[in-house]
Amino acid sequence: MAAVTIDIREYGRNEIEDSWCEGPEYSAGLWWADFDEAGVESCYIAWVGDDVAGFITIDGDGLCTAIEIKTQFQGQGVARALVEESNCWKPADDQNPEFWEKMADEFGW
What we know:
Blueprint: E1 7-11, H1 35-38, E2 40-48, E3 51-59, E4 64-69, H2 78-86, H3 97-107
Antiparallel strand pairs: 1-2, 2-3, 3-4
């Protein structure tokens, strides 16, 4: 499999189209459009070419409220790139201990 080029950008709520972060391409359906209700302070979106590959949302305490990668981009380093760029390597609710332990080992302090 060829390596993909991942471009990570931070967005404010009013800059995001909900269609980028929801739909059947996401297996867990973690997108929450109401940032205030979800406690989201920042959002990073991963792009591969013209395609949104995934997102990470972060609360006011700097914890990940959600991270999700589209099915076709899983296993290509997108989640790792989101964690690295956002500097958010701890979850608010640890639903994947193996992943977060690896991220804490790699990026934590």
